[in-house]
Amino acid sequence: MKTIAINIKTEKEVKEGAQRLAREMGLSLSAIVTASLKQFVRTGEVQFSVSPRMTPYLEKVIEEARRDYKMGKNISGPFESATDLMKSLRS
After folding, report:
1. Contacts of residue 67, Cβ cutoff 8 Å, sequence gap at least 6
2. How many domains does the chain have?
């Protein structure tokens, strides 16, 4: 399929950051833009996502769970069967 050039305006930092991320993924910025445009044409939707980040609350819960694990607190299992698991949950 024949390709054409598209000229867009963006900040220098945005372009450089996008090129860096694309390179880290083993892709060109052109490939990223083309894939985005094809998805837009196919679905009629624009999707934006950000890498998931833990909330401070979730970080606190995970840290608490790690402390409990190190202290042998609030730990159960492993279980040999679902029945054993259910018995433990009911006790």
Report:
1. 73
2. 2
